[in-house]
Structures are given as C-alpha cells and as structure tokens.
Amino acid sequence: MGNRGTSNCLLNFGEQEGATGWLIGKPGQGLRQMFTMMNEARISVGMGAAALAYRGYRQSLRYAQERTQGRAQGDKIGPPVAIIEHVDVRRMLLQQKVYAEGALALCLYCANLVDQSDDEAEALLALLTPVAKSWPSEFGLIANDLAIQVHGGYGYTRDFDVEQLWRDNRLNPIHEGTTGIQAIDLLGRKLLLSDGKAIELLRARITQTSERAQAAGRYKKFAWELLSFWKNVADTLDGLKAQAPNTFDDATLFLRAFGHGVIAWLWLDQAMVAAELAETPFHMGIDHACRYFFENDLPQARSWLSVVAQHSTLVRKMPIEAFA
Ligand SMILES: Cc1cc2nc3c(=O)[nH]c(=O)nc-3n(C[C@H](O)[C@H](O)[C@H](O)COP(=O)(O)OP(=O)(O)OC[C@H]3O[C@@H](n4cnc5c(N)ncnc54)[C@H](O)[C@@H]3O)c2cc1C
Predict the structure, then answer these.
(1) 3-class secondary structure for 122-161?
(2) Residue 36 has what pLDDT?
(3) Does residue 174's CB lie within 6 angstroms of at least one atom of ligand 1?
C-alpha cells in the first residue's frame, strides 16, 4: 500500500564474504536484548499513529469549515451551509478528536514515565507499552477513516492528504508486533504471568483521579463508571486465569477494552485539569471530548469485556473446514 515519508532500507549481511556478529549480553538472551529496542519502537509506533490521526482530524476540521453542502435543518430556501453545521459531521469530528487526542495523551503519559524511570514508572511503562502501541494504531486508523468520510468523495482521491494518512496509518497495527501479538503480551506477560504489581499501580492512579473527581463534585457519574469498569477488568482477569488453555482466545478484545479503560481515565484526568482553567474554546473542547468518550465509547468497551468474561468457545469450536 505504500508507507510514505519514511526512509526504509533492507540490509543483507554477508552476501559476499561473510559477516561478523558481536554478542550483546549473555548467550541465550538475544530476544530479551532485542526487546530493549523493540519496546522503544513500539511506543514510537503509537506516537506516529497518534500524529497521523491528529493530522487527519485537523485537516477534516478545516475542510468541514470550508465545504458548503446542504441547508441548515428546517431551512428550505437558504444558501448551502458549511458541512460543519450538520451534527452528523460534527459527530465524526468529535469522534476523531477523542481518538486522536486520547492517543496523544497516552503516548505523552508514557513519555513522561520514560523520563521518570524509577521502579514504579518502569513497571507502569511495561504494562502500558502494548496499549501505547496498539490503541493509537487501531483507533487512530478509525479516526483517519472518518477524516476521509468528512471529505466525502474528495477524501477517496489523492488530491487531499487524508487518503495518504489512512494508508500510512494502516501499517501501524501490523509492524513492530501486530495487535494480536500485543494482546498476548498484555494478557500474558504483563498481567496473568506477572506479580500483579503493575496493574495495582495503574488502578491506584485511576482511583486517585476518580476520587478527585468525586470530591470536586464534577464528573461524578464518570468517576463512578470508571471505577466500576476497572473492577470489571479485575473480575474478568480472575475469570480468565481459570480458562487455560483457552485463556488467550479473546486477548485482542480484552486489549481493546483495557485500552478504552486507560483512555477514559486520561480523558477524565484532562477534563479535571481543564475545569480548573478559564472557559476557552480549547477547554470546552476537552470537556466535550471527555463526555463523549464516556457516553459513546466506554459503553462499547464494557460490552467487549462482557464478551471476554463469557468465555464463549464459539470461535474455538468452529471447525476450520467450516470457513468455507
Ligand atoms: C511497510 C512495512 C515495513 C516493515 N518494516 C520492517 C522493518 O524495518 N524491519 C523488520 O524487521 N520488519 C519490518 N516489517 C515487518 C513487520 O514487522 C511484520 O510484517 C509484522 O511483524 C508481522 O509479521 P508477519 O508479516 O510475518 O505476519 P504474521 O506473523 O504471519 O501474522 C499474520 C497474522 O497472524 C496473526 N498471528 C501470528 N501469530 C499469532 C499467534 N501466535 N497468535 C495469534 N495470532 C497470531 C497476526 O496477529 C496477524 O494478524 C515491515 C512490514 C511492513 C508491512
């Protein structure tokens, strides 16, 4: 499909006269060493995906302000209005905003953990790395899809950048470990096979934000919903432990739900900060985005989580020959 604006090369070592390799670390630890580089690459992929999503949002926002089509609701004779006047278009813009800026918030949160680099930050970063890699990649791509949709037929052409943004972003759920591999990493190494300290740290931070929201009397309902969502995550994990060997069947669905839980927390946190500041369009945007995520997106995550918790064996038991 073409990944543009990136320098790529393939190195073939030793085609002519052989090549010399140097051992880094102890023998048998190669994969471990490689992951030092890989983890950084994974967070960078998430950041790239967030940037592409954000660019698509800004471009489709500008287009929606300029493009005229259709009349204002209830108006039969007036001139055509800018498409941003149509609520359905504004919904597509807001959905992009919550995905793009939510993804950016997650990546910046992880960057901050890299800077802190104490034991607590390292544990949290390890837990959040598969999320920071996959959530922006998956939902940034949906944002870019919506950016095309806002452009209508023009979005499908190469005359506008949004086509390229989608094409470039389509790589991100694939390289540096596909979403499916990130899901196994999160559910396996980072949760079920770990000592559980990292998830406790994360839940403590989420609880802190929720309690702050409750104490301030603002976003009380969302704070309660967030806590109840994370209680569901913990219960689902307990249930999954008993499901071996089927534990990983719905890992991707679990990762998606887990990611939504993290993003919901970051939106609430941002909205709490914005609420303390002057009421500018920028801060109003944060407030609306937070509300939209809790009203529109978190309920979807709850339904994904309930599918995981049901431990359905439908897919597992479908005979491979039935994929006819
Ligand atoms: C544009 C582009 C640039 C790239 N650049 C580089 C680069 O610079 N360096 C480099 O080393 N690589 C690069 N890659 C390769 C990239 O990292 C791989 O394509 C990627 O890791 C997926 O591996 P694969 O293609 O072998 O897919 P596969 O491993 O065959 O995966 C196919 C599907 O099966 C699923 N799957 C595989 N194994 C499992 C499992 N155990 N459980 C559940 N599901 C599973 C995957 O999630 C995926 O959906 C690049 C790829 C592309 C497209």
Answers:
(1) HHHHHHHHHHHHHHHHHHHHHHHHHHHHHCHHHHHCCCCC
(2) 78
(3) yes
